[in-house]
Amino acid sequence: MSGTVCLRVVLLLLVATSGACRSAESSTLFVARRGWHIDLGLAVEDLSQPLAGIASHVPGSRYAFFGFGDRHYLLAAKHNAPVLVAALWPGAGIVLLTDLSNSPQEAFGATNVITLQLDAEQMQDLQSFIWKSLRSHGGSVDVYREGPYDGSAYFLASEKYSAFHTCNTWGAQALKAAGFHVHTGGIVFAHQLWSQARRLSREQERKQARKVE
Questions:
Q1: Domain coordinates of the chain in residue numbers?
Q2: Which end of the chain is more exposed for a tag (fewer CB within 10 A), N or C?
Q3: What is the pTM (predicted TM-score) of this model?
């Protein structure tokens, strides 16, 4: 075998090995329960464009959490009975971005956070789903209004909110878009999504344990 051919073989092996290493990399998805509402979070360093562009509006943030909701309800001055009833009907949706400088466990409590591992393809698909949930124009999105917490902001959603398409429905759809085996139909309440996330976490833990044995 000539030196040129040997060099080409080595280069091909290096490229193949590099691709295998990249595909084997994993990132963490944080599923956070906030009462009746569930948010999905990612480390800011794991975000890619265009999502990284909107998650970096707070300097020094380490994690970005996204949650879907009813615009009228979330922005209402008072959450009285008429506002609650109105949220049951299809209406404009909104996405709340919350940036964290501390860990999700510190922010929400360890018992309210489930972690799931994503490979590179899952991460890309999840971020694509979140981005498509935002109302964009010309490939960009604008902050609609400052959020209720430090380091949070509201963005207009591309989908409507209703009694049958709640924040938790959106969360289940996001997990499914990332390649997880979850049910999305009829997922309305937080406990329905939370139980599925716990199952996914246990399955990943068992799979990891078998690799170690």
A1: 24-212
A2: C
A3: 0.81
DSSP string covering the chain: --HHHHHHHHHHHHHHHHHHHHHH-EEEEEEEEETTEEEEEEEGGG--TTHHHHTTSSTT--EEEEEEEEHHHHH-S---HHHHHHTTS-EEEEEEEEEESS-HHHHH-GGGEEEEEEEHHHHHHHHHHHHHTB--BTTB----EE-SSTTEEEEEEEEEEBTTB-HHHHHHHHHHHTT-----TT--SHHHHHHHHHHHHHHHHHHHHHHH-
Which residue type occupies 191? Answer: H
Neighbours of 152 (CB within 10 A): 17
- Placement of tokens 């609609």 in the chain: 144
Residue-level pLDDT, tens digit, the chain, 213 residues: 443 333 232 223 333 333 333 334 789 999 999 988 999 999 999 999 999 988 766 677 899 999 999 887 777 644 444 445 444 545 789 999 999 999 999 999 999 999 999 999 999 999 999 999 999 887 788 888 888 888 789 999 999 998 899 999 999 999 999 999 999 999 999 999 999 999 999 999 999 888 876
CB atoms within 10 A of CB 5: 9
